[in-house]
Amino acid sequence: MRPNSAKRKLLAGESVNCGWLSIPSSYSAEIMARQGFDCVNVDLQHAMTGFETAVTMLQAIATTDAIPLARVGSHDPAPMMKLLDAGAYGIICPMISTAEEAEGFVDACRYPPIGSRSYGPARGVLYGGADYVSCANDEILTIAMIETGQGVENVDAIAAVDQLDALFIGPNDMCMDLGKAPKAESDDPDVVAAIEAVLQAGNRAGKPVGIFCSSADAALGRRSAGFRFLVPGSDANSLTGIAREAVAKLS
Amino acid sequence: MRPNSAKRKLLAGESVNCGWLSIPSSYSAEIMARQGFDCVNVDLQHAMTGFETAVTMLQAIATTDAIPLARVGSHDPAPMMKLLDAGAYGIICPMISTAEEAEGFVDACRYPPIGSRSYGPARGVLYGGADYVSCANDEILTIAMIETGQGVENVDAIAAVDQLDALFIGPNDMCMDLGKAPKAESDDPDVVAAIEAVLQAGNRAGKPVGIFCSSADAALGRRSAGFRFLVPGSDANSLTGIAREAVAKLS
Amino acid sequence: MRPNSAKRKLLAGESVNCGWLSIPSSYSAEIMARQGFDCVNVDLQHAMTGFETAVTMLQAIATTDAIPLARVGSHDPAPMMKLLDAGAYGIICPMISTAEEAEGFVDACRYPPIGSRSYGPARGVLYGGADYVSCANDEILTIAMIETGQGVENVDAIAAVDQLDALFIGPNDMCMDLGKAPKAESDDPDVVAAIEAVLQAGNRAGKPVGIFCSSADAALGRRSAGFRFLVPGSDANSLTGIAREAVAKLS
Amino acid sequence: MRPNSAKRKLLAGESVNCGWLSIPSSYSAEIMARQGFDCVNVDLQHAMTGFETAVTMLQAIATTDAIPLARVGSHDPAPMMKLLDAGAYGIICPMISTAEEAEGFVDACRYPPIGSRSYGPARGVLYGGADYVSCANDEILTIAMIETGQGVENVDAIAAVDQLDALFIGPNDMCMDLGKAPKAESDDPDVVAAIEAVLQAGNRAGKPVGIFCSSADAALGRRSAGFRFLVPGSDANSLTGIAREAVAKLS
Amino acid sequence: MRPNSAKRKLLAGESVNCGWLSIPSSYSAEIMARQGFDCVNVDLQHAMTGFETAVTMLQAIATTDAIPLARVGSHDPAPMMKLLDAGAYGIICPMISTAEEAEGFVDACRYPPIGSRSYGPARGVLYGGADYVSCANDEILTIAMIETGQGVENVDAIAAVDQLDALFIGPNDMCMDLGKAPKAESDDPDVVAAIEAVLQAGNRAGKPVGIFCSSADAALGRRSAGFRFLVPGSDANSLTGIAREAVAKLS
Amino acid sequence: MRPNSAKRKLLAGESVNCGWLSIPSSYSAEIMARQGFDCVNVDLQHAMTGFETAVTMLQAIATTDAIPLARVGSHDPAPMMKLLDAGAYGIICPMISTAEEAEGFVDACRYPPIGSRSYGPARGVLYGGADYVSCANDEILTIAMIETGQGVENVDAIAAVDQLDALFIGPNDMCMDLGKAPKAESDDPDVVAAIEAVLQAGNRAGKPVGIFCSSADAALGRRSAGFRFLVPGSDANSLTGIAREAVAKLS
Asked: Which domains does chain F have, with CATH numbers?
């Protein structure tokens, strides 16, 4: 099976960067994936992307060395399994607030006897290779988003869940759940403390912690602070910023 | 009929900026259109976009004040008419090298008795209003691309074509047709001279001249030089640049 | 944030009419939205429409003054949040039979601290404006469908749910759940009584009540009876009727 | 090969009615085709429809007894052949103004030795049957649109073209080409005379003549006048009318 | 209502064969459906197919005599109802391990008073006919997949569920759930015994049992063993096999 | 620039096999491309495929080592250029009957100063690499179809056209143009002679000749006869055959 180079870097203690796709297009996906990210995530939670376009985006990413990931919109196992069948090499699951939720999540991403993922890796074998089924439990990356106060409270139990590979902070939802204004790099003390608590829990459990950032510069700062899975904004945000700047210059 | 504010600015001697859409997505189209461009162009020549996605992009642009344009891939009148029916408020036609070609182009964009555009403004009336057919000949913008040596030789005749509203330089094709390496802001003397010749011809004919630029800064420079229809790069180029920069920072 | 004019009319005690989209096309959506409805609903329950086409339909509606709504297919919060992120300004939720179900529904449509909607208003900010997140809880319209006998029994408790803005009757499902033949304007006494009970509960709670009708004439009748959110049939039904009539005339 | 019942009715001197699809959706196509039309036309000239959606519409029509037709956007043979390969049982070609244009059109619709249609009836054999290639020249319907003054002048020569099965008037374009306001049922004397001239030429040549109408009532009138291929408006126009009427009633 | 010929054959004790669609295309769906299968299944669990493409595939199947089925990805009732509304004449539900799960499944596929399917048979009436709603409970086919050890344990209770029409074995998932390597025709004794247990339970309950096979030859063997709903591989597997063989011959 | 391995094999006198895609799906495209073909062709002439799906198919092919080609539907340069921009590494042009037609074809596929291809290699640079523009004239494969009697008459002149890389016979069209029944491996003496004439002309000109075959066995025979670009049937034909065989076995 094609190795999951992003997972291996994380396991080796290295940091990985991750492109983030909110635009539902295989062309913009290939543009992003071609620029050198370790992995690229197809968002199906807050992006304008449905399943079939996501498949073409996973194919576009597969033309490059970047590892294809997908973020789902809920804890429902069915879309997780379908995206794995479509060749995603990792799933990012939002709003994990308890160890039970984390266990349900990883259960959907692992074949028996570890989990209960259903057999049918349509594109998985095309991308991963003929031995996909026997190796997938090792290669597929499972990333739980910690973005609620309850998730922070339970973060040690979550981080301890077997088969869960990494934690990932959604800072905007974290802010809102804590009653603060949403901000990727908030300096609100409660938010700062919550984020730090997740990072420390990951360190204690020996599991990498990631965070969504508003820019590459912000991601550099987070990396210095110990985060190892770094998203320097999304394609949509990047496009917004550069277009706004262009119009401002020309006005 | 909804006025074509971009055309009116050009007729009033003002400069307009134009967002350029190479990504086939109504979502990225809306992002771009929302940032304040005077007009936004859906490219169907070199972009990965087909007709039906172009329609959704024209709809997305129509949620904003930016005027929707479309660039076609050839001199064939049928796609021009179909894009106008779909609500494009202007057509950019590539590779105009003779006055006859320019006449054929504008003929397709004007209803009788001026031209031979066929009746059937399906989305045109939704976007433009009930009086679309009687006003369209005035509001629709026709922009001929000058991007060959032959086009430069014939530029005065082209600029003199009635119903042709503006000239637009494709600098990369201009370079290649002149035997030079393609570059948006080439300093090759032959290219510089050709571009200047088009600008002067436009000025003589009282018609605005535009040019594709590699960035907003480059567009500012072109505007200072007298160009009045300015494209500060494409969405795809912008995304490439910002992703490459992010990866570089994080590597 | 762009005001939700349909919600404001309802809050002001006025009636609103709502176009209903069962055809999965941004073009027919724009045709419908352009004709003057207060709001237009993209159906994702019984229509042939998936998420990505729904996005283009929401964009098409956003080219007009009609407020875009979406009906989801179940009580699952994920599609509700994703459609709100896509710019729906209200959600119609089917088969609400208990106050708990209604609470779960509105929880998904409100940001913390009121609800648990996740942050990521991709098209929401494009359509609504930069202050979308701080205002969305006020502007987004929540409409619970009462269409079961159990829903009628619990209608006062449902109507009392905070953040629930309106009730909406699905008369065909109501008929079937009561053991009657499905009919939009049934004169079966049990159905008539159930519908009247919902209307009275809405009145007691000070919340507007709507109903799906088979035609504009039927909607006029319902409005006279006190209903304030009126759907005069769907695009698909309208098209069926007019085509059938045309064929009958020509046969 | 499945017989082309619409063509056979025309050859037998009967009149046929034709549904007209401007909405790019296989669902609305199936709704229309199911209502009893003799044939249903997928418009690719002025509608918002591209090739791939047209294929799904042709499939939707093929679930019924209505014969699937397609209108192309120009005289280019390639799209005609591709739509025939996709299972269209007839082509409507716009803007035929000379016999040469008509000959080019029918040449594209007939296999050698009659014409030069290229072999590859992908869906043709699925819809038509295993003997498609040997029978297609007989079953495929060729309909030339007469909608210019020049077309009227040349109408006898056009009608005399072998393999051309019928004439079809586009009254709006006819009006505009004659310098009149576009109107489906114009009473302008010049337009009336031009339309009558086409009808008489068809009668002289023994070929049926059709016309686009604004409604079923208008089509009834045209049928009384001798027209035998009758289009009672389009799906988009019907939807516009009924939605506008509904809003008017409820306002 | 158009009779469900596949269900009637099963009720009459005959065997049916079923084409299996993993490729998301209405064209390949029509190719498959045209070859003479009793029924053809649109897979939405492990295939690369989303809802809207599934609709066009159901339409493509409806151009033939093959009965259209759909396999959903989970026990969620909403997609079942939506696919039935789209004209599926049967639902295959994966991973049924208890009678309660089977009851929930069939409840979603039956209108009141038997079940709780919501009213709105958009394409159902187009395909099935005007009396669709009153007949659908009889014609719609419900097929529960038994593919876990728990399902085998509970198979008699599952088979006894009223309104459940047939059992269908997913042999690959069965293998994996039993801790064996996935194989369509495994000769592992535990797997063989589990499959036999399901077949016997079906026989006891008087309900047909089906199984996914790797080829037509394998299906013949299963039929001899008493299975009556036979899937001779999928389109994707068939294509893989024939392409691999072609390359091998030419290498 | 990524080397065009299929072209290099042809230039080295080796034979290449080519998968042929008639099904409009990136998933079936990836299945085919993954089986080991030297190159895989996306058909846009007789297949049910439009431009945007073709792009996703080119992306799917690009996940493998197979070289992506595209067949266009006519001699129009615009679609050729757009498909090259989309990453096709070769164009197959149908119905080349004269040297002038061949010259027009290769002109569209070569950048100045050799040809007049317009600049804008959107996906070309993603797939080919940063030096795409300077190397594309060498790597892009141009294949002219000889499939008419006139083409056979002119085959030496066609084969002599500079920049034309290979000849490819469409045997079905060849049969029909010669007045014979279409058959991939016809033994009609006139067809046999015509095909042999093309092969000999290719040999004289030192240019490889290919042919569409009905199966891998037929392709083996053609290879023995000297053909070097071999298409062993299409995906659609393969699927038809295997499904028909399965149904026959089970009936």
From this structure: 5-250 (3.20.20.60)
